[in-house]
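Trying the structure run again after the queue cleared.
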Amino acid sequence: MKLSDRLQAIASFVPENTIVGDVGTDHGYIPVYLVENKISKKVIAADISNNSLNKIKQYVRSVNCEEDIDIRLGDGLDIIKPFEIDTVVIAGMGGLLIKSILDKDKEKRDSITHFILQPNIASDELRKYLFENNFEIIDERLVKEDNKFYEIIYAKKGKAYVSKEIYYEIGEKLILNKDPLVNEFINNKININEKIVEELKDKNTEKSKERYEELVEKTLALKGVLKENESS
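Done. Tokens:
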């Protein structure tokens, strides 16, 4: 089967011969792809929505993958036992929700080796959580789909630190890898920030002033990263 660019990038981070838990599997495309391409020995496809799960069951049955894909109804890591999987995929939800899923059950979280995470928003909060909880970001990739950027993070347990605060906002691996979309991605963030700054500049509330200063500082840092990246 052919995956979208976003799902293909997520699947490309899954190590071969692993047992995968796809949390919030939605249509079940990633589990089927991993099994059909013999990347994973077994996949647990989980979703909190019963309607989604019924569609997944039909799809998995239609491609004869029932033996290798275990479909489960449940929330986050509730559906797995410690050491049952070695790789988890959590994609297509907010960074704060991904963070809460990982933090809810530390015993299960710490029994997993590979973490493939794709936050739709609040990627900076997720990166901060990872670094503060003894994770190391091994790799990152950007995908642009339907005019929207997606950040895909591959992490493992390990000690790491962030050399610049702005690398919570823009993953350092994207810079180091010279991701082909990174300059466009940074420029997009700068444009969004500058529009908000323009809207806030005449507001006089304490909260507005704080947000204004925060965004001005962040925009300067983003421009600094962009300049360094363009000159390297």
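The two ends are 39 Å apart (CA to CA). Worth checking whether this holds up in the mutant runs.
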